Amino acid sequence: MICHLSDSLRVAGGEIPSEFKPGPLANPLVRWLLAYAIPFPKERAQTAPEMLLTPPAVWQADLLAVREQLRAAVERGPQGNWARHPAFGDVSGALYGVFIYKHFDHHLRQFGV
After folding, report:
1. Residue 79 to residues 34, 36, 41, 61, 94, Cα–Cα distance (Å)
2. What SS3 class is residue 85?
3. Bridge partners of 89?
4. Which residue among 7, 8, 49, 96 is the one 20 to 30 A from 55 at the CA level?
5. Are 103 and 8 spatial neighbours (Cβ–Cβ below 8 Å)?
6. Torsion of CA 66, 22, 76, 56, to 10 degrees
7. What is residue 39's predicted lDDT score, i.e. its pLDDT?
């Protein structure tokens, strides 16, 4: 899960190229609902293969990597340059921040953290 979160941040920052696949999640109204009105699903959801590239290795190194990626996302900030999301398409930095928070929260709750 830590490696998946790290990969998702690397996709967001453009470090890992990702292909946009148009669908209902790219609709601005659906994105807004997912960000602000609908809770993140508790069950496992399909994810972009680009967000599953890094195999787990050494726990401390994996944890350090996700912390560094999260720090880089914070430094990029809402006005920074964000890559096109594979499912949501072009989103603002502020909305990316909401999705990053919800994604991390989803997985941390999944493991009781």
Report:
1. 21, 20, 28, 29, 8
2. strand
3. 85
4. 96
5. yes
6. 10
7. 87
**Neighbouring C-alpha atoms within 13 Å toward the C-beta of 58:** 3
Q: Which of 18-22, 44-48, 107-111 has the lowest mean pLDDT?
A: 44-48
- Nearest to residue 10, comparing CAs of 58, 89, 65? 65
What are phi and psi for residue 45, nearest 5 degrees? -120, 155
Longest dimension (CA), the chain: 40
Amino acid code (one letter) for 61: A
Tell me which residue has tokens 């994996």. Answer: 62
Look at residue 111 in the predicted model and tell me its pLDDT: 86
Q: Tokens 């601005």 appear where? A: 28
